Amino acid sequence: MHPQQADCRSILPDQQHRKYSSGYIRIRKELESYPELTFTVEETSGGVLVTFKQAGRVNEGINEGIVGLYNYVKQHPGLRIPELSKLLNVSSKTLERWLKQLKDDKRVIHRGSRKAGGYHVTEENS
Q1: Could you give the 3-state DSSP secondary structure of residue 40?
Q2: Minimal CA–CA distance to 41: which of 68, 12, 15?
Q3: Residue 90 DSSP SS3
Q4: What is the pTM for the complete model shown?
Q5: 56: CB partners within 8 A, 6+ apart
Q6: Closest CA to 43 of 7, 25, 6, 16
Q7: CATH 1.10.10.10 region(s) of the chain?
Q8: DSSP 3-state assignment of 108?
Q9: How many CB atoms lie within 10 A of CB 68?
Q10: With contact defined as beta carbons under 8 Å apart, do 108 and 119 qualify?
């Protein structure tokens, strides 16, 4: 058995090991070209989740996007995701992720109903 197959076997149950092991080996081999990347593998209900991290760097593009969204909401309170998506030319899914982070950080809140409400900067951040 290939050493990386054994590594895959330790993470995945038998059925999934057979299904995913060749892809897992290809990922491990390719990552050797990128020593600054690390990854973790987690078993999920539908398969595996692989998370990649770049050592020592913060993803500036994402942070700039979140900061830009925060500033836009601060200047234009009450907008909903479809409106923000159109105005900022950013997908709804990306906005949902960014807004979740801003809500988790207690920087923005959603006021009103799901249909008619919108996003606002929290009082302590205005």
Answers
A1: strand
A2: 12
A3: coil
A4: 0.51
A5: 36
A6: 16
A7: 60-125
A8: strand
A9: 13
A10: yes
Token pair of 79 as six digits: 């907008």
User: How far from 107 is each of 67, 71, 99, 100, 126, CA to CA, in Å?
Assistant: 11, 11, 9, 10, 9
The tens digit of pLDDT for each residue in 42-62 reads: 777 777 677 777 665 444 455
Q: What's the pLDDT score for residue 120?
A: 94
CATH number of 60-125: 1.10.10.10
pLDDT (average), residues 66-88:
92
The stretches of the chain forming alpha helices (DSSP H) are 3-11, 14-31, 60-75, 81-88, 92-104
For 59, the token pair is 């993803």
Q: Select from 94, 22, 25, 17 the least CA-distant residue to 48.
A: 17
Distance CA 61, CA 63 (A): 6
Give the count of beta carbons closer than 10 Å to the beta carbon of residue 65: 17
- The two tokens of residue 104 are 């988790």
Q: How far apart are CA 80 and CA 97, in angstroms?
A: 14
Integer Cα distance of 80 and 116 in angstroms? 8
Please count the other Cβ atoms lying within 10 Å of the Cβ belonging to residue 111: 12
